[in-house]
TrEMBL record:
Protein name: Cytochrome-b5 reductase
GO BP terms: superoxide metabolic process
Protein's organism: Nezara viridula (Southern green stink bug)
Keyword Amino-acid biosynthesis part of the UniProt annotation: no
One MF annotation (Gene Ontology) recorded for this entry: heme binding
Length: 484
């Protein structure tokens, strides 16, 4: 039903007013909030002054948005949206479509916070008319333990699902969720932890999404039902998980000496590996504890099925690589928490992303390519310069080719140091001349092009490349070298 009791009905949007067009407008640089970038404290009186179609603000869950430009993009039509203009429209919004991700859609329209931000709105229980949709939304942050002070936690449920949301200010370094006891849910966020007791069991694993503004974990309920509020487990600080057991569920050759090893969670533990982070894989080999870091990859043109996918090079005299590549499907390996100091935040302004890798230094680039190509309106070109010895050493050569064929914004330049006579493309080692042929000298005067460069390979390769980039004028803010 609409807010007025009419059957919910989407209106036909004018041409050029699709969600994609809205996202494009959001990325155009236009000041949609109309505040010149400032985040304001807004009183109820000020909010009420913006209640016309030509100048409309609206408040949802304490956030005030300028919805003037969104008016013609609203799938429910301007008339419906205007019902929330100038007021705290949380209840209205929750009655119609509490599942709509307003924070993301209206990100660029944020005017600020309502000064009397009445959190009771978050406790509001939407009308029961939508029994098969979301039935209630309840904020539980008031009862959060000190160990978890800071982030707000909300939850909402439908008959079949329950979703828990932790609101963030930046991308977290560590997110682990565990459900080893059927009705207990533990969330670790960086070094803090909180536990919840659930009314009944959930199906594992959750659908986990992590962005810089929130962690959202959607669980399917084992039995469809409406639950009482999950209650927070007081004071009971759960021992931090230092190692996570994983089962090898895939092991296959990618080329003559690189293996793809798929690991899946053996327990009810879900975690997130930030892009550019690696995970320590642990082993006890002949009584000696060893650990090696590997960067999880994503498939380039198709999704890989395991929870964590590693590309591991086998070295005949490498104790660890021989051990891991000779494991069998079904074997357990222990991994540690993701580690790293990279952040996709470094690349937010980049229109041109250049990835320079050598050998298995290719691994972090897989997720970077995936991330960058998804930023359709922002990233104009992604170029991988991939150094190897010979053709047989190139990891996923045909997959890379497929991605190039399917994506005009993606390019790959292969450079071989020991090619055979049939190789007609670039050969050699990294040199300033070679870099110049792929990347321009640094300039911050071109408003249309901003380059960011990521480098990963053996230490000598990375050091040399960094020196050449510095010689080309690239400041630290415009490149990142993965090390170790
Ligand atoms: C507070 C006043 C609002 C009212 C009364 C309202 C009303 C409606 C109605 C009646 C629909 C109908 C169509 C349907 O889903 O079948 C709709 C759809 C929609 N509205 Fe709103 N809306 C409001 C605010 C907003 C805001 C602030 C946003 C954006 C952040 C938004 C985003 C959407 C989206 C994305 C849909 C399509 C939903 C879907 O397909 O499930 N609405 N709205």
């Amino acid at each position: 039903m609409s807010a007025t009791g009419n059957p919910r009905n989407k209106v036909a949007l004018k041409p050029g007013h699709s969600l994609m067009d809205w996202i494009r407008l959001g990325n155009s640089g236009e000041d949609l909030a109309g505040t010149g970038g400032a985040i304001l404290q807004v009183t109820k009186e000020q909010l009420a002054q913006h209640s016309t179609e030509k100048d409309a603000w609206l408040c949802i869950r304490g956030n005030v948005y300028n919805i003037t430009r969104y008016m013609d993009f609203h799938p429910g039509g301007a008339e419906e949206l205007m019902k929330g203009a100038g007021i705290d429209a949380t209840n209205l919004f929750n009655k119609v479509h509490p599942w709509v991700n307003f924070e993301s859609i209206l990100k660029k329209c944020l005017v600020g916070r309502l000064t009397s931000a009445v959190d009771e709105n978050i406790f509001e229980i939407p009308s029961s008319s939508k029994k098969d949709k979301i039935i209630r939304e309840q904020k539980v942050s008031n009862s959060l333990p000190i160990v978890f002070d800071g982030p707000k936690v909300d939850w909402y449920q439908q008959q079949n699902f329950i979703t828990m949301v932790v609101y963030l200010k930046e991308l977290p370094k560590k997110v682990i969720i565990s459900n080893e006891e059927p009705t207990e849910l533990w969330i670790w966020l960086n070094d803090k932890c909180v536990g919840f007791s659930l009314m009944q069991s959930i199906v594992w694993p959750p659908l986990l999404t992590v962005t810089d503004s929130k962690i959202e974990a959607k669980y399917t309920k084992e039995k469809p039902d409406l639950w009482d509020d999950p209650s927070y487990i007081p004071d009971d600080f759960k021992e931090a998980l230092t190692t996570i057991p994983m089962i090898i569920d895939r092991i296959e050759h990618v080329n003559h000496n690189v293996f793809l090893i798929g690991l899946s969670n053996s327990k009810r533990i879900a975690f997130h590996v930030p892009i550019g982070y690696h995970i320590p894989v642990k082993a006890n080999i002949n009584g000696t504890s060893l650990e090696r870091n590997y960067t999880p990859v994503c498939g380039l043109d198709k999704k890989l099925s395991s929870d964590v996918n590693l590309l591991i090079k086998y070295y005949p005299d490498g104790v660890f690589s021989s051990w891991i590549t000779s494991r069998k499907v079904g074997a357990t390996v222990m991994i540690g928490h993701p580690v790293g100091n990279f952040s996709v935040g470094f690349l937010m302004k980049a229109t041109h992303i250049i990835l320079i890798s050598a050998g298995t230094g290719f691994t972090p680039m897989t997720r970077l390519v995936d991330w960058a190509l998804a930023r359709r309106n922002k990233v104009l070109e992604v170029k991988l310069i991939f150094f190897n010895k010979a053709v047989k050493d190139i990891i996923w050569k045909s997959e890379l080719q497929t991605l190039v064929s399917n994506n005009q914004r993606f390019r790959v330049e292969h450079v071989l140091s020991e090619p055979d006579s049939s190789w007609k493309k670039t050969s050699g080692w990294i040199t300033p001349q070679l870099l110049h042929s792929y990347i321009p000298e640094f300039s911050d005067e071109d408003p249309l092009r901003s380059f960011f460069i990521c480098v990963c390979g053996p230490i000598s390769f990375t050091q040399l490349t960094e020196r050449y980039l510095q010689d080309m004028g690239y400041p630290h803010e415009n490149y990142f070298c993965f090390r170790g």
